[in-house]
Amino acid sequence: MQLIDDPTLESDTSADEVHMLLEALRNGDVEEVGEIFQTLRDYWGELAARERFN
Fold first, then answer.
1. pLDDT per residue as tens digits for the range 9-54
2. pLDDT band per the 50, 70, 90 thresholds, residue 1
3. Residue 40 domain-assigned?
4. Which residue range(s) make up the domain with 13?
5. Residue 4 falls in which region: left (phi positive, over 0), alpha (psi -120 to 50) or beta
6. Contacts of 35 (CB under 8 A, 6+ apart)
7. In angstroms, rounded to a whole number, what is the distance separating the alpha carbons of residues 37 and 41?
8. Is residue 26 one of the residues assigned to a domain?
9. Helix residue ranges per DSSP H, 1-54
10. Who contacts 31 (Cβ-Cβ below 8 Å, separation ≥6)?
11. What's the structural domain count of the chain?
12. 41 by DSSP, 3-state: which?
């Protein structure tokens, strides 16, 4: 079973977003941290839900 199709997986930028999140955290940019965290939570939350229901 494949949770993510190849084009989606190839365009996944979540690793870069985690890096940006850590950088924003180091810089004390709370607003940026919140925005990036929300994006990551939405993306990985959808995958987790799909995995649970498959």
1. 888 899 999 999 999 999 999 999 999 999 999 989 888 887 777 7
2. low
3. yes
4. 6-53
5. beta
6. none
7. 6
8. yes
9. 6-10, 14-27, 30-53
10. none
11. 1
12. helix
